[in-house]
């Protein structure tokens, strides 16, 4: 008898079952659990336990999950304090946990090569023979024409046809059709040399290329080069957000027709099962997806690319709270395969990995079309306010837009705030409209004649009152602008111009954004305005001007990554201008034009900016020169959250002292920067150390209380 730990869905702990025959790690099996049959995955072979164990009732599929991915799940479970079954639930679509064969398989048959026409007597048999020959002797079972259905059965009986392959029956196209519009380019010398440096050895790479330097082509050729060496090879392409990258997906489909699938959290349950199974059986060679795609088991994984690797969406904000980089590095190391991080503005951690020699640096310093990098001009909004203009579009920006239109060009305006304005307060008593559930001001939204107040955290909505609830006066002050206000000012300034607004209020349907972009592309002298959505990846040849309406959004937060993120965002947005033929113009409006950030930005000196931040973090012993873990306490009762926070902090301090680690690891606590969100109170305990290993070891050994969340390397500390 042998014994195995088996993980079940929605069952926190893994338990042990016995089996008479040997099983493998990764097998999909059925076991009795609380008197009901349940499907589970074998995760570990163990010694005979002292307690009585039930028997595994059947094996559905051996090595259903590759051992590598079981190891990945174990690793994530351990390093991020998350139940293994929870990690496996992320890895395996739900349908497989409830039905052993949730997808229909179909078989492909091949005609016996020795069979000749003369050998067959019956005319329909001759007919089917000729039909099959016209298909190179190959046929899928669901493609047999009706008139040959009976003959097909006869052929099988007589073994004229042999089953050669089984695959998943697809019910829809999964976007597998190759795109027609995009071509595959011949690489420029700079791209070719970058490709050579990337394929040169199997070490990890940072592909540091300015926006518009043609990184996508390099990635495609990188995969293609490896594919010519191994036709079974599979590739993982990770990106921060799928909805915004139709052009990129098309580019891949063009080079790998019929072999590309897309993975993201908005796929339907059925789509997930289909894509997942086709990746597993090797039909899909290139999987393009967001962070969860890194958890899709790829049996022949041969290389990984993570584009825009600096984006925060690569952080999983639920348990296990991993950075996708950890998954990439784990898989690459275990499989000994190459990986590439791509960015115009890498993360400090990635920069650090280059400095320490962990990653090789490959650069693409110039744009493909040899156009100069855009000219960046800073507009001081303090001066604009002195002149009495409090509207989002400054005089200078208005002038620049007119200039672009004179040259028959298009304009992109970026404002990372949706709604009409930020907070609203009574002009007389100063009463501000706050959310009842959150420590957050409500934002004014307007559509037509309707005014609403909306909380951007919890979505709570109120009608905008006629008068101040406190003093009954009817005049209000508004702070900050949103995209709706920008749109309404633009309508007044440019009544003839077609405006395309992209934010979470205007883009709701699955294809809205794609449609809006293609309409914008086909409308000369128009303006695209929007939030975060329009910052990345978009490539329009006619955009000559990009206006950043308010660069200060996010800068005021007391977080040591705030400036880095703002810089990354601005650099991304500026990358949307002048990508072909002409040099683009960027106007950055800000109230803080004196910040060094803007000096670096204007000079396109990303390296200078990074180095300055890097030195600052080194001096202050901030990550990546230390590790800061955040333990989160959330409770509807402020007193309970606070009590848990204080007692946990005290216990941690005591444990550190006991283990003589108090010089090495520092424990502090604080309420969150926004202490109340979603009707709950948030408190944090921080553990900081410049010895990440020691911190990890301590955290593994500590007996954590129930009801907390552990974020080992949080996006932000606030
Ligand atoms: P990045 O991702 O580095 O910002 P892209 O991959 O979007 O840059 O490429 C910028 C533009 O240059 C795109 O329009 C792309 O189609 C085009 N391009 C890329 N490589 C070539 C090439 N070798 N020849 C011609 N055009 C290219
Ligand atoms: Zn709220």
Category from helices, strands and their pairing: alpha/beta
Q: Which geometry do the CA atoms define?
A: globular
**Physical arrangement of strands within the biggest beta sheet:** 11-12-10-13-14-9-15
Helix content: 25-40%
Total DSSP helices: 20
Distance between the terminal alpha carbons, to the nearest Å?
Answer: 53 Å
The rounded Rg comes to 29 Å
Strand percentage, roughly?
15-25%
**Which CATH first-tier class of the largest domain would you pick?**
Alpha Beta
Number of domains: 5
Q: Main beta sheet, described?
A: 7 strands, parallel
Ions, cofactors, ligands: which are bound? adenosine-5'-diphosphate, zinc ion
How many β-strand runs? 30
Average pLDDT across residues?
Answer: 90
Write the layout of secondary structure elements.
Elements: E1 2-8, E2 15-19, E3 28-33, E4 36-46, E5 58-61, H1 67-79, H2 84-91, H3 95-98, E6 105-111, H4 123-134, E7 138-140, H5 149-157, E8 161-168, H6 189-199, E9 205-209, H7 215-229, E10 234-238, H8 246-255, E11 260-263, H9 269-280, E12 286-289, E13 301-307, H10 324-335, E14 339-343, H11 348-355, E15 360-364, E16 375-380, H12 381-386, H13 395-406, E17 410-414, E18 424-426, E19 443-447, E20 450-454, E21 461-463, E22 476-478, H14 483-493, E23 499-502, H15 512-521, E24 527-530, E25 543-548, H16 562-574, E26 585-590, H17 596-602, H18 606-619, E27 627-635, H19 638-658, E28 665-677, E29 680-689, H20 692-701, E30 708-711
Parallel strand pairs: 9-14, 9-15, 10-12, 10-13, 11-12, 13-14, 16-26, 17-24, 17-25, 23-24, 25-26
Antiparallel strand pairs: 1-2, 1-4, 3-4, 3-5, 6-7, 6-8, 18-22, 19-20, 20-21, 27-29, 27-30, 28-29
Helix pairs in contact: 1-2, 1-10, 6-7, 7-8
The chain binds adenosine-5'-diphosphate and zinc ion (ZN).
């Amino acid at each position: 008898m042998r014994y195995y730990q088996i993980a079940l869905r929605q069952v926190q702990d893994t338990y042990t079952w016995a089996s008479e025959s040997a099983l493998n790690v990764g097998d999909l099996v059925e076991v009795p659990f609380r008197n009901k049959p349940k499907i589970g995955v074998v995760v570990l072979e163990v010694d005979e336990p002292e307690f009585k164990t039930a028997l595994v009732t059947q094996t559905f599929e051996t090595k259903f999950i590759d051992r590598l991915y079981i190891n990945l799940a174990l690793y994530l479970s351990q390093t991020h304090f998350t139940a293994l079954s929870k990690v496996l639930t992320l890895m395996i679509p739900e349908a497989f946990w409830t039905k052993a064969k949730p997808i229909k398989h179909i078989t492909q048959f091949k005609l016996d090569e020795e069979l000749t026409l003369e050998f067959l007597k019956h005319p329909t048999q001759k007919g089917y023979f000729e039909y099959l020959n016209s298909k190179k002797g190959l046929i899928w079972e669901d493609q047999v024409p009706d008139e040959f259905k009976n003959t097909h059965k006869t052929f099988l009986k007589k073994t004229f046809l042999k089953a050669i392959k089984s695959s998943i029956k697809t019910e829809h196209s999964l976007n597998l059709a190759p795109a027609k519009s995009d071509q595959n380019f011949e690489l420029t010398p700079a791209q070719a040399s970058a490709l050579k440096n990337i394929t040169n050895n199997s070490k990890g790479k940072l592909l540091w290329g300015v926006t518009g330097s043609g990184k996508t082509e390099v990635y495609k050729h990188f995969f293609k080069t490896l594919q010519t060496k191994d036709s079974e090879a599979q590739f993982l392409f990770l990106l921060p957000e799928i909805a915004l990258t139709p052009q990129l997906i098309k580019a891949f489909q063009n080079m790998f027709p019929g072999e590309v699938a897309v993975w993201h959290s908005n796929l339907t349950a059925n789509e997930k099962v289909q894509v997942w199974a086709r990746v597993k059986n090797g039909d899909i060679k290139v999987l393009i997806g967001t962070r969860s795609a890194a958890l899709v088991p790829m049996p022949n994984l041969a290389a990984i690319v993570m584009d825009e690797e600096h984006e925060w969406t690569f952080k999983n904000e639920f348990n296990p709270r991993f950075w996708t980089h950890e998954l990439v590095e784990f898989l690459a190391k275990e499989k000994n395969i190459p990986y590439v991080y791509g960015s115009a503005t890498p993360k400090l951690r990635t920069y650090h990995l280059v400095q320490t020699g962990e990653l090789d640096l490959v650069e693409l310093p110039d744009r493909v079309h040899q156009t100069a990098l855009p000219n960046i001009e800073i507009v001081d909004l303090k001066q604009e306010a002195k002149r009495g203009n409090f509207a989002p579009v400054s005089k200078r920006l208005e002038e620049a837009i007119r200039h672009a239109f004179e040259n028959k060009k298009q304009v992109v305006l970026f404002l990372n705030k949706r709604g009409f304005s930020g907070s609203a307060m009574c002009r007389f008593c100063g009463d501000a409209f706050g959310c009842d559930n959150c420590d957050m001001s409500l934002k004014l939204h307007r559509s037509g004649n309707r005014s609403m107040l909306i909380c951007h955290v919890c979505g709570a909505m109120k009608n905008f009152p006629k008068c101040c609830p406190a003093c009954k006066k009817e005049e209000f002050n508004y702070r900050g602008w949103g995209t709706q206000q920008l749109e309404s000012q633009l309508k007044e300034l440019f009544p003839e111009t077609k405006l395309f607004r992209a934010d979470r209020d205007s883009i709701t349907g699955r294809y809205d954004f794609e449609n809006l972009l293609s309409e914008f592309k086909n409308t000369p002298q128009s303006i695209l305005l929007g939030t975060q959505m329009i910052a990345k990846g978009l490539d329009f040849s006619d955009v000559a001007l990009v206006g950043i309406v308010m660069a200060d959004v996010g800068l005021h937060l007391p977080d040591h990554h705030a400036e880095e993120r703002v810089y990354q965002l601005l650099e991304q947005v500026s990358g949307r201008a002048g990508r072909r033929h002409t040099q683009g113009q960027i106007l950055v409006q800000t109230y803080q034009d004196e910040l060094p950030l803007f000096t670096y930005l204007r000079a396109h000196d990303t390296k200078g900016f990074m180095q300055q931040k890097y030195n600052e973090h080194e001096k202050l012993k901030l990550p990546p020169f230390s590790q800061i873990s955040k333990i989160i306490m959330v409770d509807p009762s402020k007193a309970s959250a606070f009590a848990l926070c204080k007692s946990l902090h005290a216990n941690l301090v005591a444990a550190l002292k006991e283990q003589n680690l108090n010089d090495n690891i520092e424990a502090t606590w604080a309420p969150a920067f926004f202490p109340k969100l979603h009707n709950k109170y948030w408190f944090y305990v921080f553990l900081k150390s410049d010895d990440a290993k020691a911190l990890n070891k301590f955290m593994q050994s500590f007996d954590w209380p129930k009801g907390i969340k552990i974020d080992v390397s949080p996006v932000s500390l606030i």
